[in-house]
Amino acid sequence: MDLLEKIVSLSKRRGFIYPSSDIYGGLGATYDYGPLGVELKRNVTERWWREMVYRHDNIEGLDAAILMHPTVWKASGHVDAFHDPMIDDKASKRRYRADELIERHIGKLEASGKEKPAREVRTRFVAALHSDDMPKELHRIILDEDIRGPDSGAFDWTEVRQFNLMFETHAGAVVDDETKIYLRPETAQGIFVNFRLAQETARQQVPFGIAQIGKAFRNEIVARRFIFRMREFEQMEMQYFVRPGTQMEHFEEWRAKRMQWHIDNGIRPEHLRWHGHEKLAHYADAAFDVQYAFPMGWQEIEGIHSRTDFDLKRHQEFSGKKMEYFDPHRKEKYIPYVVETSAGLDRTILMLLCEAYEEERVEDEKRIVMKFHPEVAPVKAAVFPLVKRDGMPETAQALAADLRGHFNAFYDDSGSIGKRYRRMDEAGTPFCITVDGETMETGAVTIRDRDSMIQERIPKNNAADYLKDRMRSWSRSA
């Protein structure tokens, strides 16, 4: 069983993530976050919001509607150009993104030391992405390089075709072209259409940013790899509005900040890298992805893009409303350029699950432990009575209630202490506190560290402050 399969199994068993509509056999590429998963998700979004909004006095928050006027998506280019190049393997009946097949092939060449062939294929690949007939050129590379179906090993492909990824729906009682709208495929456009309102009501001056966390929807033709690629997902985005000509300075600034945020969440630096785009989007003048070393290879978790003034100009053109900003210092009007940071929340969760998962041997038994950074761990502390008598359960319950005033804590009196430890290890709980006979005499409890399994005794009344100090000073030992 590979790591991703283990993560999927653990997620369902311990309540991180469930298949959506599971009692009906599930619905492809949709998932529900369980009790532990929703806490992990909330911790990540709160850390992101605190980092992006509360620590910057020139970044404001927004929560735009999922349903927007359909002209928004015409102006943004999604109606005409939001496509993925797809190819079918006739043998396995599975569908793949053609560009990802070629990138994977290049990665295999590089891994096997075939640097020159890899460079040659990459040169052709970049040229294909910029060609007038991209599907045809990508198909030619797949055939010339004898790229076979990942699942079947067969070499029996269809042509490469483009598929639009937007979900259509209708507003109102009549279903016709006049009532057609879309589920938003990204959260960014909600920020752009509110640019002037947010700037004026918050009284911000350029440079400033607008941040948003929200759902987006894409009719992914190939939706696999657990929560890495889903049809309903969440984004954590910030659009930073800057004076034209200064975008590269801000672009590099946000690249550094965003990489550091992932490291601060407990991701090992060697598991992260930058990946420059082979082909820039039509609106961009620079683009890099933060990639993580997932079990299925290096994959994007966040994009940093310099979007120029494309979006605001297009919305000005299609709406007839001015998107210009008057710079009081330079006494001039201009349409700001935009530097975007766009992180996939679900991909970030999957990265944290993969990074935290470890298997260890402890006294000839396998211990599965999720070594989350304590700040993102779903449960910060678990409290156990050693036995269900002599006032220990009542004391433990009171301590757990007190700790819940500071952070998420859990009370458990079921099974042996060893089994309770193992359950909390799999949940990623950094500290377990045991109330025993000595507690009833002296008021001291035993605190066990998840990662080292070292135990120490401290006064029960100091538990909250002790745990806060330990969480602040946490560092990964492995």
How would you sum up this structure, described in words?
There is one protein chain. The chain has helices at residues 3-14, 35-54, 70-76, 78-81, 98-111, 115-129, 134-144, 188-193, 195-202, 247-264, 310-319, 345-356, 392-403, 417-427, 437-442, 463-472; strands spanning 17-19, 31-33, 59-61, 83-89, 94-97, 161-164, 167-170, 180-183, 208-217, 232-242, 272-276, 286-294, 297-308, 325-327, 332-334, 337-344, 357-362, 365-370, 381-385, 409-411, 431-435, 444-449, 455-459. The chain is of the alpha+beta class and 478 residues long. Among the domains are: 3-66 and 194-353, 2-Layer Sandwich (BirA Bifunctional Protein, domain 2); 379-472, Rossmann fold (3-Layer(aba) Sandwich). The strands form 7 sheets. It has a 7-stranded mixed sheet with strand order 3-9-10-16-13-12-11, with helices on both faces. Strands 20-19-21-22-23 form a 5-stranded mixed sheet, with helices on both faces. Strands 5-4-6 form a 3-stranded antiparallel sheet. The longest helix is centred in the N-terminal third of the chain and has 20 residues, at 35-54. It is globular, with a radius of gyration of 26 Å. The mean pLDDT is 93.
